[in-house]
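Posting for a labmate who doesn't have an account.
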Amino acid sequence: MITEFKEKKLVEYLKDGQKILIRFGHGWGDTQMFMPIFYRIRELYPNILFDIYLECGQEDIFGKPQFLEDEYDLVFSLNFPMSEGSHLTKQEKCCLEEIGIEGISEIAILPPKNSPIISVHFQGTCLPNSVNCPYDVSKQIWQEIKDFGKIPIECHFQHIFHNPLNKKYDFIDNSVRNYKANLHNLIGIIQNSYAFIGVASGPLVTALSVMPERTMFLQRHHEISNYTKKKITYINVFDYKKGEVIKWLKNMPL
């Protein structure tokens, strides 16, 4: 593994037909800055096969998840030097001091990803005894969202008509209750969510407008047919079966 570039740069080792691995064991920010350099090396040397090895989950976005050094003619481990105190960016400094090519300073364009947020609304405004999802069922749903790998956020704004009976459940660790209640914020959160799970209230109808196919209705005493003729997924909060939410999320089309 080559780690020293003071006397000889990476490109000075290269020959047509080689198989080269670049091991880049740095943080996510550095990786985003380095990837345009990696792509440029591939462009400049089309007769050499280049792979990159990343760690800590970065391999899910770029690169090769595992490697054997024996598979490669050469393995390079880059230092990606700091540039503080110079007029160069980190990318330019790496190009000049380690790679041996003209400096570039682009940042990688990331692939599009689905929103990690699932908006959740367990408590209505006017009729808590008619619509609210019970504590234990709500807690189970909240945990299933986490287990699925998404980030639940309680989109319960304490607006002018907020019912003080609707105190936040103690397991909720991510909520909008302390932020300004306005419709722009509510619509924006739901529009930028992966899915919505909630009771009969304003946020539910907003979700039905934005993404009915990704809305789950938490039914208590009011049926979904009171609000829409569309076929909407719903569960009876008095008869919740463990795993229903995570099963729904897993089966949701991308």
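Reply:
Got it, the structure tokens are right above this. The two ends are 41 Å apart (CA to CA).
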